[in-house]
């Protein structure tokens, strides 16, 4: 049961990463920095926050508090990447740390207590907490990407008006 949960959850994390990458691939550096208004975050800022969060939460995941002393969360929402390449490099680094940590989880430590901001929780709960957090931000990235691309947006799932066609194709499989 534990192994099935872990495999399923890791697939969910991989799916989120792919969704984000499919958005990033559609956008120019300028589009990655677009903000609706001064209070809004750009995709680049959200990516910077995800990077900082991933490094903090997943570095030494099983042995140290997930809110590292070296993390400066507030700075994650200031400035951003100088280029799309820099953003993509940080994106990969964050996800690598995440997946490396997830791959250390097993049935023997799934219910071990870990801490985030000194709050105790099971490894399972910490994994779920981050999955929800990342889902929210990937959703924001998708939404902003759709706004920026407008009619040039390449749908990430079933295009509008194509549900019936999609369902028919699925039946043929």
Order of helices and strands: HHHHEEHH
For the report, how would you describe the main beta sheet? 2 strands, antiparallel
CATH topology name: Four Helix Bundle (Hemerythrin (Met), subunit A)
Using only C-alpha atoms, the radius of gyration works out to 18 Å
The shape is flat
Task: Write out the CATH superfamily name.
Answer: dinb family like domain
CATH class: Mainly Alpha
Give the rounded overall mean pLDDT. Answer: 96
Tell me the number of helical segments per DSSP (H or I, 4 or more residues long). 6
Residue stretches low in confidence (pLDDT < 50, at least 5 long) are: none
Pfam family, one: DUF1572
Protein name: DUF1572 domain-containing protein
InterPro entries: DinB/YfiT-like, DUF1572
Question: Describe it for me?
Answer:
With 173 residues, the chain is mostly helical. The protein has one domain: dinb family like domain (Four Helix Bundle (Hemerythrin (Met), subunit A), Up-down Bundle). Helices cover 58% and strands 5% of the residues. The protein has 6 helices and 2 strands. It has a two-stranded antiparallel sheet with strand order 1-2. The chain is flat. The relative contact order is 0.17. The model has no long low-confidence stretch (mean pLDDT 96). This is DUF1572 domain-containing protein. InterPro entries: DinB/YfiT-like, DUF1572. Pfam families: DUF1572.
């Amino acid at each position: 049961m534990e192994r099935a949960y872990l495999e399923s959850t890791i697939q969910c994390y991989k799916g989120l990463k792919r969704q984000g990458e499919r958005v990033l691939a559609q956008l120019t550096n300028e589009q990655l920095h677009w903000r609706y208004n001064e209070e809004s975050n750009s995709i680049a800022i959200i990516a910077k926050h995800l990077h900082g969060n991933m490094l903090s939460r997943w570095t030494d995941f099983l042995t140290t508090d997930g809110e590292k002393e070296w993390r400066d969360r507030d700075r994650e929402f200031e400035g951003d990447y100088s280029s799309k390449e820099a953003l993509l490099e940080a994106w990969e680094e964050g996800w690598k740390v995440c997946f490396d940590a997830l791959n250390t989880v097993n049935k023997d430590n799934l219910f071990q207590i870990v801490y985030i901001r000194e709050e105790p929780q099971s490894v399972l709960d910490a994994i779920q907490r981050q999955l929800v957090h990342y889902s929210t931000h990937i959703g924001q990235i998708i939404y902003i990407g759709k706004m920026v691309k407008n009619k040039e947006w390449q749908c990430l799932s079933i295009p509008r008006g194509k549900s019936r066609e999609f369902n028919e194709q699925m039946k043929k499989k």
